[in-house]
């Protein structure tokens, strides 16, 4: 995938009024692809409007999103450990996941403090997920597939 294509996906997929998903986001590992779709659907439930503050619904949604993201990250990190030739690959990826969880903490605090609109939260989460899939997961899984094609469907 070219840099222009990657940027177009990050800008477009799931943005208000834009296509909801794109087959180019599929890694070819069915469980990881399903989990990415579920994360994406959860993110899409965050209101795209100007609401500030943390409503009970939004609070619930963020709790679900966080616990599902934790579950997915653990699954993906275990999958990498199982399939990568060096532990360093899983460690680097784990670091990116942990940085996302920290950022989510900050955003939640901003939302509670009325310093963030739900639309900005939605945009950050959507962009982070698509960017992470396009620029991290896809190249990593693609490289592992090339190295050991027999491990992949
Ligand atoms: Fe990942």
Automatic annotation (TrEMBL):
Tell me the InterPro entries matching this sequence: Hemerythrin, Hemerythrin-like, Hemerythrin-like_sf, Hemerythrin_metal-bd
Supply the Pfam families for this chain.
Answer: Hemerythrin
Tell me the keywords, alphabetical order: Iron, Metal-binding
* Hemerythrin-like domain residues: 28-137
Q: Which CDD domains does the UniProt entry name for this protein?
A: Hemerythrin
Q: Output the NCBIfam families linked to this UniProt entry.
A: hemeryth_dom
Which family is this sequence assigned to? Answer: Belongs to the hemerythrin family.
Return the protein name.
Bacteriohemerythrin
């Amino acid at each position: 995938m070219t840099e222009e294509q990657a940027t177009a996906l990050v800008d477009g997929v799931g943005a208000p009024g834009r296509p909801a998903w794109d087959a180019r986001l599929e890694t070819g590992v069915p469980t990881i692809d399903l989990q990415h779709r579920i994360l994406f659907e959860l993110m899409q439930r965050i209101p795209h409007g100007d609401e500030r503050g943390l409503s009970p619904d939004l609070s619930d949604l963020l709790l679900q999103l966080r616990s599902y993201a934790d579950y997915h990250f653990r699954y993906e990190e275990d999958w990498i450990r199982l399939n990568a030739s060096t532990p360093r690959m899983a460690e680097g990826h784990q670091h990116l996941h942990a940085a996302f969880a920290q950022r989510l903490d900050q955003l939640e605090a901003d939302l509670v403090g009325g310093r963030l609109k739900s639309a900005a939260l939605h945009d950050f989460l959507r962009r982070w997920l698509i960017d992470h899939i396009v620029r991290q997961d896809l190249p990593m899984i693609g490289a592992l597939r090339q190295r050991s094609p027999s491990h992949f469907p």
